[in-house]
Amino acid sequence: MKSLNIYIVEDEPLIVSTIETALLKQGYKVIGDAQDVVTAIKDIKTLQPDLILIDIQLEGDQDGIDLALELDRDQLPYLFLTSQTDPDTITRVKKTHPLGYIVKPFTEAGLSSNIELAWHDYKSNNAEYIILKSEGRFHKINQNSIFYLKAFDNYCYVFTASKNYLVPHTLKHMAEQLNKDMFIKTHRSYWVNINHIESIGVNELVLKTEPIPISASRKSLVLSKLKSR
User: Do 104 and 175 fall into the same domain?
Assistant: First the structure.
């Protein structure tokens, strides 16, 4: 499984340390943690984690359910970490949309398997889409609406019919998420949606939006892909 950048919201430092150790052993990356909702919201907008683990009981006036409601508005994926099963908590939790629940106390194996299964289901349910992190938000984009992707140092531009996004990932990382029946690499800095190709010239192809460079080594592959459709 590809490594995930995970953020932890938990007000007990010992539990945070235990979770982080367990996640690192399984190849995940913990990019930050917070003990309260205000700090968590600020960090999440800046760090843009792939997945957030949230304890329901937190320091301050707001708890993990309050944070979850905020994340739901931005369609950010999260799992609850909790030992609370009282009726009032269950009633409030029903208003949220977590990927799942990890009940305390948990084992390292249980923590890892819950995360892996939840993330697999999340990706499977969004197979026609690509999830972009841009400007502190997650965006669920239909892949066919994407014209092309362009490398920009360690970032990547994603050009769609309605909006362009600057994503804090490399082109290689983003290409791993693409439907390879729909997209093809035309140049070391470009991946193109073949459904939007209108013509191919000597050293460029034309999309409905603009010309895109095509390297000599990739041209025959692109032509073959087009002819096979």
Answer: no
Tell if the pTM clears 0.70, that is, is over it.
Answer: no
Task: List the one residue out of 164, 229, 222, 228 whose CA is nearest residue 191.
Answer: 222
The DSSP line for 163-224 is -EEEESS-HHHHHTTS-TTTEEEEETTEEEEGGGEEEE-SSEEEESS-EEE--HHHHHHHHH
- Are 109 and 217 part of one and the same domain? no
Amino acid in position 147: F
Give me the sign of the Cα torsion angle 204, 134, 33, 89. Answer: negative
* Helix runs in the chain, H state only: 13-25, 37-47, 64-73, 87-93, 108-124, 171-175, 216-227
CA distance 66 to 89: 12
The answer to whether the beta carbons of residues 205 and 211 sit under 8 Å apart is yes
4-34 per-position pLDDT tens digit = 899 999 999 999 999 999 999 989 999 999 9
Contact yes or no for 9/53 (Cβ under 8 A): yes
CATH at 179: 2.40.50.1020
Place of tokens 């994340």: 71
Identify the three-state secondary structure at position 15: helix
